[in-house]
């Protein structure tokens, strides 16, 4: 969930929160680069949540206990009296609050996964159940397919269903990701490779860790170092980084050094370092800018690494 820093001087605390969210997106187990640009931003007044637009105008009056997630495909999850429901951009409740917080997720390709009892299924935007709860775990739909698990988290296997709920790739994988650019990461015996939509293995499991393809490249870990492969499985940027993110606007965030003392910088698609690792925290580039931190100083840089704005946190 990305809450953008839309007014630079609105709050130093808000900037810190945004940085933490950005950093998490770069280091999380499976990144989801979806959807979300609604033009609306959550606010809290007198203990209630609502939304403003980029001008600061209140467009949805604060009335909800909490915003659970940003808008996705026109709907947002909100908490009302301890239950999650969905609102549209006018603030109208379109799916009544009925789910616990971990039981309902964002809409993707017209469907949202929900848990009823111990099993997962899918609802449409009217709240109607269209795929009956029957899976032990499930993910969002991506490129027409959704990852599901049959069995418990220890011994269960992952496969894929289509939007009718039909299993189209039999559960057989120890781990799996959503489809991205026609391929999905799968885990077999502690190693990761990639399958196509027929379920055929097209890149043999060989990596210690791997992520989905983004803009033709996927980041993979061999041993302790990260690099990038293309869709043939060829290594195009040698593993050499202690952490790496997907490419965004032609650049990728990488870290040299460990989590506590390492520094973040940026590479291009040839693997060349174009912005020297110097930042304690940093985000991916979005609309030509990246949020960066050095000590108590934070600001936005452009793709040359030049600050276009900065300020002291304390």
From TrEMBL:
<protein>
    <recommendedName>
        <fullName>WG repeat-containing protein</fullName>
    </recommendedName>
</protein>
<dbReference type="Pfam" id="PF14903">
    <property type="entry name" value="WG_beta_rep"/>
</dbReference>
<dbReference type="InterPro" id="IPR032774">
    <property type="entry name" value="WG_beta_rep"/>
</dbReference>
């Amino acid at each position: 969930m990305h809450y953008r820093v839309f007014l630079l001087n609105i709050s130093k605390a808000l900037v810190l929160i945004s940085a933490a969210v950005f950093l998490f997106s770069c280091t999380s187990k499976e990144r989801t680069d979806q959807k979300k640009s609604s033009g609306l931003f959550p606010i809290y007044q007198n203990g209630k949540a609502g939304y403003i637009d980029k001008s600061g105008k209140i467009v949805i009056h604060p009335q909800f206990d909490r915003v659970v997630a940003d808008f996705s495909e026109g709907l947002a999850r909100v908490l009302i009296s301890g239950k999650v429901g969905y609102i549209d951009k006018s603030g109208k409740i379109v799916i009544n609050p009925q789910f616990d917080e971990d039981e309902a997720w964002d809409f993707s390709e017209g469907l949202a996964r929900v848990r009823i009892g111990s099993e997962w299924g899918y609802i449409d935007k009217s709240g109607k159940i269209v795929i009956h709860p029957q899976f032990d775990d499930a993910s969002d739909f991506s490129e027409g397919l959704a990852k599901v698990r049959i069995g418990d988290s220890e011994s269960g296997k992952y496969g894929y269903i289509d939007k009718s709920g039909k299993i189209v790739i039999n559960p057989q994988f120890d781990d799996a990701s959503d489809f991205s650019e026609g391929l999905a990461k799968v885990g077999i015996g502690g190693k990761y490779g990639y399958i196509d939509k027929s379920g055929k293995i097209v890149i043999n499991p060989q990596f210690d860790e791997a992520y989905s393809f983004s803009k033709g490249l996927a980041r993979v870990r061999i041993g302790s170092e990260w690099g990038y492969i293309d869709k043939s499985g060829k290594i195009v940027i040698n593993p050499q980084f202690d952490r790496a993110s997907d490419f965004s606007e032609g650049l990728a965030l990488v870290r040299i050094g460990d989590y506590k003392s390492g520094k973040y910088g940026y590479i291009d698609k040839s693997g060349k370092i174009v912005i020297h690792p110097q930042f304690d925290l940093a985000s991916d580039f979005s609309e030509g800018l990246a949020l960066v931190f050095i000590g108590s100083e934070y600001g936005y840089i452009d793709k040359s690494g030049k600050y276009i704005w900065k300020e002291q946190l304390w």
